[in-house]
Structure formats: structure tokens, C-alpha cells
Write a structure and sequence with these properties.
178 residues; alpha+beta
């Protein structure tokens, strides 16, 4: 389960991590991963290094539960049905409405669903994030090297030179000239 797919959602004055594609998709993903576990431990054709993870045995076992992974790729091209859908109905978990998805294209329904709600991931940025260590003001810049940006309002407030630092999640030591 890739933590990247969890989003923050507010419920009862709390912020919770929830699966961005919804509970139905989360449980489809969990079953998908359990089929990998079954295949590696009990299958006749477990995955070997350099071989496709979503081979015929994996796809066939997944289909027997109602999942529809694309061979070789593994994304789910259709909403799960069969045994899986029956269990979801018994648990009171409603399927997402993907009725607008075109039937004639094999695409990952999870991603199509988020895109249809306007929540799809945008392209990856090539800009680099820099931040003022004094006030936290952020700037994104399209150059690789240090842009040596100074933040005049913070310089006036502190009485010394303030350069933006790269906002990369690491701790940076800031040396001040005396």
C-alpha cells in the first residue's frame, strides 16, 4: 500500500489519512497485494527478478476474485465485480460511480476516477522550492544551482543578510557573517 495514495481529510475536528481513491479502491488494492502474496507462496509461477509481476497466473487468480488487472502493468481497467463486489455489498461499501468512463479504453479506473472528480495528480514540476529561513516565505525557481535570493523584509527586521535556502526537507546550517 503506497502511502502516496493517502490524503488528509477532516472529520469531527480531526485530520485523518484516507485512501484518495475511496474505500472500494483501497480494498481492491489490498486484495491485489494479497494475490501477489498468494502467488509468491503458493502459486506455480511466482515472480522472479526481471520478470513481469502481473503475469498470467496473477491475472487469472485476480479475475477469479473479480479484480481486473492489466497483464504486465497491473492497473485495474474495470471496477471489480464478482466475489469482490458481493463482499463489498455485504459490508455496505458502495462502489464509486464510474459510469461516465468510456468502455472502449483500457485505462486505470482509479486514476480516471480521480481525474473525473478534478482531483487527479498534476504533472511533475521541474521547479525547485526555496524558502526564507526567517519567515517561511516560499519561492519556486527553474534553475538547478543556488539562486542566491535575498529576502529584504527579513533582512530589515533581523539586521543581517537573509538568503533563501533550498526547501528539500533536510536540515541546513545557516552561517552568519560577523
Amino acid at each position: 500500500m503506497n502511502a502516496e495514495h493517502y490524503i488528509d481529510e477532516s472529520q469531527d475536528d480531526k485530520t485523518l489519512k484516507v485512501w484518495g481513491f475511496g474505500q472500494w479502491a483501497q480494498l481492491e488494492t489490498l486484495l491485489h497485494e494479497q494475490v501477489h502474496l498468494w502467488q509468491q507462496n503458493f502459486g506455480l509461477d511466482p515472480v522472479k527478478p526481471g520478470k513481469p509481476y502481473h503475469n498470467k497466473e496473477f491475472v487469472d487468480k485476480s479475475e477469479s476474485f473479480g479484480l481486473h488487472p492489466m497483464p504486465g502493468v497491473g492497473c485495474h481497467t474495470r471496477l471489480a465485480d464478482g466475489v469482490f463486489a458481493f463482499l463489498m455489498h455485504e459490508l455496505g461499501i458502495e462502489p464509486p460511480d464510474i459510469s461516465r468512463k468510456p468502455d472502449d479504453i483500457n485505462i486505470d479506473w482509479f486514476k480516471w476516477f480521480l481525474d473525473s472528480l478534478g482531483k487527479g495528480r498534476k504533472g511533475t514540476s521541474t521547479l525547485h522550492k526555496w524558502t526564507c529561513p526567517e519567515c517561511g516565505l516560499n519561492a519556486r525557481i527553474g534553475i538547478k544551482g543556488n539562486p542566491e535570493i535575498r529576502h529584504e523584509p527579513c533582512e530589515q527586521k533581523t539586521g543581517h543578510t537573509v538568503f533563501f535556502i533550498q526547501a528539500d526537507g533536510l536540515t541546513h546550517t545557516i552561517y552568519k557573517a560577523e
